[in-house]
Amino acid sequence: MTDNSQPYHPSPSAGRPDDRHADTTDFGFRDVPLRQKKSLVRDVFDSVASKYDIMNDVMSLGIHRAWKRIFVNELAPHPDLSLLDLAGGTGDISFGWLRGGGGPAILSDINVSMLTVGRNRALDRGLVSGLNFLAVDAEAIPLADNSVDRVSIAFGLRNCTDKLQVLREARRILRPGGRFLCLEFSRVQVAAFAPVYDAWSFHVLPRMGAAIAGDRESYQYLAESIRMFPDQETLADMMREAGLERVSYQNLSGGIAAIHSGWRI
């Protein structure tokens, strides 16, 4: 991975959906062959799965928990509603949905190592009832059209190769009146935060990854992937392009993260 003493700041259009005819795509700040990105991302999460939750607390100083609570509240769990939790990994969103009184949930992830951790955590918490597990590529979801009421993806969309296809798939499987929500790192809106955030992302986090998870390179990639992700307005435009309506977003912690919402009308 590259040395980021001078962090890269992509243009607002960076992270637009990949050209289906392109030969390369981004993997952090690197260009890699399009067909290789999924395997590279899989390797990252195979490596970090066992320490993922500890590192989330360390990386965000625990703030991710507050973000996720807000996100689950936005999902508005209800016994009559079903949820597909895309890139659900170790299960925080699915667990929040069930604890909030939501109906049946599918905890899905392309990475079996992450999904295994999620299943073990569900067993430990007694949250297996009403929860199913599915190894799935979010670009090709094996569910019928109009089959779920909510689709969520939290800190996962930036790792997908074809983000627009993920959004299209989310809309396809939503029932009319269903809602898609995405929680993701975004573009900082408070100028004073930017230098501190860059120093934390590119100097502190990789060192923590090395010390705690034994993997500096994966956390270097994760920091880079945040910067390559579309900004708030660009992602909102992509959601509209995918056919979602009433698209909106709210910034969290000055834009460090954002929640995007769209409806299937």
TrEMBL record:
<dbReference type="GO" id="GO:0032259">
    <property type="term" value="P:methylation"/>
</dbReference>
<dbReference type="GO" id="GO:0008425">
    <property type="term" value="F:2-methoxy-6-polyprenyl-1,4-benzoquinol methyltransferase activity"/>
</dbReference>
<feature type="binding site">
    <location>
        <position position="90"/>
    </location>
    <ligand>
        <name>S-adenosyl-L-methionine</name>
    </ligand>
</feature>
<keyword id="KW-0808">Transferase</keyword>
<feature type="compositionally biased region" description="Basic and acidic residues">
    <location>
        <begin position="16"/>
        <end position="28"/>
    </location>
</feature>
<dbReference type="InterPro" id="IPR004033">
    <property type="entry name" value="UbiE/COQ5_MeTrFase"/>
</dbReference>
<keyword id="KW-0474">Menaquinone biosynthesis</keyword>
<feature type="binding site">
    <location>
        <position position="109"/>
    </location>
    <ligand>
        <name>S-adenosyl-L-methionine</name>
    </ligand>
</feature>
<keyword id="KW-0489">Methyltransferase</keyword>
<comment type="function">
    <text>Methyltransferase required for the conversion of demethylmenaquinol (DMKH2) to menaquinol (MKH2) and the conversion of 2-polyprenyl-6-methoxy-1,4-benzoquinol (DDMQH2) to 2-polyprenyl-3-methyl-6-methoxy-1,4-benzoquinol (DMQH2).</text>
</comment>
<comment type="similarity">
    <text>Belongs to the class I-like SAM-binding methyltransferase superfamily. MenG/UbiE family.</text>
</comment>
<comment type="pathway">
    <text>Quinol/quinone metabolism; menaquinone biosynthesis; menaquinol from 1,4-dihydroxy-2-naphthoate: step 2/2.</text>
</comment>
<dbReference type="InterPro" id="IPR023576">
    <property type="entry name" value="UbiE/COQ5_MeTrFase_CS"/>
</dbReference>
<protein>
    <recommendedName>
        <fullName>Ubiquinone/menaquinone biosynthesis C-methyltransferase UbiE</fullName>
        <ecNumber>2.1.1.163</ecNumber>
        <ecNumber>2.1.1.201</ecNumber>
    </recommendedName>
</protein>
<comment type="pathway">
    <text>Cofactor biosynthesis; ubiquinone biosynthesis.</text>
</comment>
<dbReference type="Pfam" id="PF01209">
    <property type="entry name" value="Ubie_methyltran"/>
</dbReference>
<feature type="binding site">
    <location>
        <begin position="137"/>
        <end position="138"/>
    </location>
    <ligand>
        <name>S-adenosyl-L-methionine</name>
    </ligand>
</feature>
<keyword id="KW-0831">Ubiquinone biosynthesis</keyword>
<dbReference type="InterPro" id="IPR029063">
    <property type="entry name" value="SAM-dependent_MTases_sf"/>
</dbReference>
<feature type="region of interest" description="Disordered">
    <location>
        <begin position="1"/>
        <end position="28"/>
    </location>
</feature>
<dbReference type="GO" id="GO:0043770">
    <property type="term" value="F:demethylmenaquinone methyltransferase activity"/>
</dbReference>
<keyword id="KW-0830">Ubiquinone</keyword>
<keyword id="KW-0949">S-adenosyl-L-methionine</keyword>
<dbReference type="GO" id="GO:0009060">
    <property type="term" value="P:aerobic respiration"/>
</dbReference>
<dbReference type="GO" id="GO:0009234">
    <property type="term" value="P:menaquinone biosynthetic process"/>
</dbReference>
